[in-house]
Amino acid sequence: LCERVGFIGLGNMGSRMADNLFKAGYSVVVHDINHDVMKAFSDKGFLTKNSPLGVAEESDTVITMLPSSAHVMDVYMGPEGILNHGDQVRSRLFIDSSTIDPQTSRKVSAAVAATILNGGSAMLDAPVSGGIISAENGTLTFMVGGSEEAYRSARPLFLSMGKNVIYCGGPGTGSAAKICNNLAMAVSMLGVSEAFSLGQSLGIGAATLTEIFNSSSARCWSSDTYNPVPGVMEGVPASRNYDGGFATKLMAKDLNLAAISANEVGARSPMTSSAQKIFTELCDRGFETKDFSCVFRHYFHGKDE
Ligand code: NAD
């Protein structure tokens, strides 16, 4: 493979994704504002650059994996951002895998199309499902919005970091899919937790109720794969004091994006509002780094705390 891939944002997820691209044989050039991270990548043999523009000058495709919309705007539109000297940019394909709101994805996509003109350019929003372990094992699911042609050309890249790649439609639809998935996951976790808590108060044990849910109509990922009640399932965060897994603060962030998006399009979203309030409260109470299934213990079950 002679294709050179730029990677910006080498945090929990991005560092592992960049490693997998490297292992797949791509030449990878990286940037992060954290100097320790840059040093570690340079020691591993990656080419490092001091700015997003520096990366885009050197690579055919640029992938970003950043904390939030503001960081993505900065990397594209900031003073040393990719679009600031569009004429110097070698890259023609831009992939943003950060979880951000669809409106920002569309804004950046339009700015790329307007700025990087010669030779044609494309932007894909391609957020991921699956956490640090999936990023490490290369088993992420990518949800991709943008032109179908660009999606097809990027499939080999996605498949060296993940195992499922789903095309969602035009710009912003990948981000929309991600937000909707996590909204549904949050609400199902709340529903299961509330039901287990009520069940226990009414005298039915969690193990029995789980058996019933999982062979009845309440069965879902939160009951049969990621059960929030300690001791019911092995290998889930609930059985190791809610350590590891998907942090409550990331769930609160994603629900905030869902709330903003719902507001922008005027969608009714009472469940989003309730879920956002509950997960934000858990963060305020100090559980922001615990797995989000801790809502069972610290919100429903621990009502007397
Ligand atoms: P992280 O905070 O660990 O990493 C972000 C990295 O971006 C950091 O290394 C930071 O230094 C760097 N950065 C910030 N601003 C920058 C800038 N202007 N230029 C260059 N680098 C910059 O975050 P993460 O856990 O890797 O998550 C990244 C994205 O993936 C987020 O949008 C998150 O919501 C999403 N996501 C995370 C998970 C997860 O389980 N952690 C799962 C799915 C999706």
Question: What's the quick description here?
Answer:
The chain has 13 helices and nine strands.
Molecular structure report:
With 305 residues, the protein is an alpha/beta fold. It has 2 domains: 4-170, NAD(P)-binding Rossmann-like Domain (Rossmann fold, 3-Layer(aba) Sandwich), CATH 3.40.50.720; 176-301, N-(1-d-carboxylethyl)-l-norvaline Dehydrogenase, domain 2, CATH 1.10.1040. Helices cover 50% and strands 13% of the residues. The chain has 13 helices and 9 strands. A 6-stranded parallel sheet has the order 3-2-1-4-5-6, sandwiched between helices. A 3-stranded mixed sheet has the order 7-8-9. β4 (61-64), α4 (69-77) and β5 (93-96) form a beta-alpha-beta unit. The mean pLDDT is 95. Nicotinamide-adenine-dinucleotide binds at residues 8-14, 31-34, 37, 65-67, 71, 74-75, 98-99, 128, 131-132, 246, 250. Residues 8-14, 31-34, 37, 65-67, 71, 74-75, 98-99, 128, 131-132, 246, 250 line the site of nicotinamide-adenine-dinucleotide.
Radius of gyration: 21 Å
Bound molecules: nicotinamide-adenine-dinucleotide
CATH class membership of the largest domain: Alpha Beta
The biggest beta sheet reads: 6 strands, parallel
Assign a percent range to the helix content: 40-55%
Pathway: Amino-acid degradation; L-valine degradation
Domain 6-phosphogluconate dehydrogenase NADP-binding: 4-169
EC number: 1.1.1.31
Subcellular location: Mitochondrion
